[in-house]
C-alpha cells in the first residue's frame, strides 16, 4: 500500500515537473514587435505603505519624474495604520496621503479595498489603477508601457518584477535569481503561449472598469494570487509587460526572508482551497489550458509540501531503518534519468541568468548557496500548513534607500 502510494505521488510530481519544464522552454525566445500608442489612459497610482518613512520619499520622487504626461496620473499613498512620519513625507512631496486607521483589518489587501472605495467616490475618475509597494522603484516608461497594453485591449497587466538590491546578501541574491528565472522561464513563456500570467503583488495595472465590475475582494495574505485566480476563473487572463520594470527591495536576512515566505505560503494554502477545484473543473469542461495551468499553480504549495514529506520519509527510512524499504518510481527507470533531471533542474537557473543578461560574477557565485534557499522552502511550507489559519499580516521593514539613478548606473 505504501509502495503504491509513493509511486503514484512520484509519478504525479514528475508529470507536473515535466509539464513546467516544457512550458519554460517557450520563454527562451522573446517577441520584440509591439504597437506603441500616444498617451491616452489616465492612471491612479496606489502605493501601499505601513511605516515606510525611510523609503517612501525615493519612490514618490521616482513616480513624479515618469516619462508620461503629469496631468494624466495621480499618486495616492495609502498610509495604512502608520505610526511614523510616512504621511508627512508624502504630503511634503505634493502627492495624496490617504491615512487609514483600522487595527482589526490589517494588511495590503484590506488597505487596497478601502482605497478603491474612496477612489470611486472622487470627482475625477481614472482609466486604470496601478498598484505598487512603498519600497519599489519603477522604470521611467512604466506608465507608457501600461498605456500601450491597455490600448491594445489588455485589462490586467503585470510588470517585470526586478530586484533592487540583489548583491546585498546571499538571500537577496537568491531572490534575484528566483525572479529572473520566473520572469523569463515562467512568465514570458506563458505570455508567448497566450496563457495567463501571474500577478506578483506589485507593478500591477488594472482597468478601472474591470475593478468596478469584479470588486477587489482580495484580502487574503496573498492578494495578488487570489485576484489572479479570480481573473482566470472569470475568463480574464492577466498579461505580462516585459518592458515595464518595477524594482522591489528584498529582505537582507534569512530570518526576515523566512517570515515573508511563511506569510506567502500561509496565504497560498487559502487560495488553493478556494480555487483549485473550481478552476480544474472549468478547465476540463471548457478545455481551457490557461485555467488548467492556473489550477496547477494554486496547488504549488501542496506539491512542495508533499515533496518535503516524501523526501523526509525516505531520509529517515535510510538513516534509521536501513532503507530504502519503499518502492520508488525512479527504480523502474534507467539510472541516467534522475541524473539528467537534476542537471536540467539546475541548468534552467543558469540559462535564465544568461538570457536576462546578468553579468555580475557575485550572482553566479551565489548559485553555490542557492540550493539552501530552495530547500528552505520545505520546512517553511510545512510550518505554514499547520499555521495557515493565521491571518495576521507580517510587515517587512525596509530601510535600504536606493534611487533609480543608482539602479541605472549599475549593471548587474
Secondary structure: elements and pairs:
Blueprint: H1 2-24, E1 43-49, H2 56-64, E2 73-80, H3 86-92, E3 96-100, H4 108-121, E4 128-133, E5 137-138, H5 142-151, E6 156-163, H6 170-192, E7 204-207, H7 208-214, H8 223-233, E8 239-248, H9 254-286, H10 289-298, H11 300-320, H12 336-355, H13 361-365, H14 370-386, H15 404-408
Helix pairs in contact: 1-11, 6-12, 8-9, 8-10, 9-10, 9-14, 11-14
Q: Would you kindly provide a brief summary of this structure?
A:
By secondary structure, this protein is of the alpha/beta class.
General description of the model:
The protein is built from 15 helices and 8 strands. 39% of the residues are buried. Strands 3-2-1-4-7-6-8-5 form an 8-stranded mixed sheet, with helices on both faces. The chain has a single domain, classed as Alpha-Beta Complex (Spore Coat Polysaccharide Biosynthesis Protein SpsA, Chain A), CATH 3.90.550.10. 52% of the residues lie in helices and 12% in strands. The model has no long low-confidence stretch (mean pLDDT 91). It has 412 residues and is α/β, with parallel strands linked by helices.
